[in-house]
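Quick one, T. Sequence first:
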Amino acid sequence: MEYRLLGGSGFSVPALSFGTATFGGGNEHLRVWGATQVGEAKRMIDLCLDAGVTLFDSADAYSGGLAEEILGQALAGRRDKVLVSSKAMFAMGPGPNEIGTSRHHLMAAIDASLRRLGTDYLDLWQMHGFDAFTPIEETMRALDDIVRAGKVRYIGCSNYSGWHLMKSLGIADRYGWTRYVAHQAYYSLVGRDYEWELMPLGLAEKVGCVVWSPLAGGKLSGKIARNKPAPAGTRVAVQGANGPQIPDEQFYDIVDVLEDLAKETGRSVSQVALNWVLRRPTVSSVVIGARNEAQLKDNLGAADFVLTPEQVKRLDDVSERPPAYPYWHQRKPLAAVRNPVPV
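Structure tokens:
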């Protein structure tokens, strides 16, 4: 397994990491994703470790903490062999202080996550979303204190806009606090908005991307194609598409190219889709999930081959979407702006 530095840090992470949103199935919404219990979780972790995947990602909100508990039990006795990341921000109870990224909530949330995971520290802790009600200074200072206390080694964010992330980095730099080195973001062949602002920001500020839902919630698993609807009971069939909506015809065009490349490379459709994301700028790790061991084995094979430049271009071209303003305007040739035709 290839290891990559996480953003501008000296922390190495595997190109593929394993997500545990499928652990527990603690509510109706998440049961459609999966309901993995401790026994199967242990077997999946064994498969990951055999493949060199040592980073396991969770969140306190996954099944109300149950996913963290299952992960902690499955990792018992081998904490020193793995990297563990989790997230906090979403509501963990009915109280007004049981949500968000306030100092009050974060101090309680990190202790609760460590207790559920059965560990003294997290390798990476990420804010699961942006909290517009809490001053960014409060969040960043609390995170710095948590890092200095030894409870967390690196921090990241998730689902931030460009200005959310840039302001957070600016505040951290101003006061000498710990800065975000990772941004866990949605990115796939059917959802390339990450490229418009967050990818250039990641390059400029050395923030590594930890990609979530690289298969668009199962749409790019190879189970859906022209005249081939989502199988009954799957996540897509029950809950619909994950992420941004694209025209049906473009989606099927993307799948057509994926199927062609799968035949050319002797790989599965999902492996090709994952491999495209793996090779994009700023991507430090791609989070794969699985409802069962067969899915996991297939996804683990996504990192051990490289698409040719021509194959990548075919996927780039078929998945291209018109950018939102002001990004379409910024694509105008700079020379035309700097050297206007004399009047």
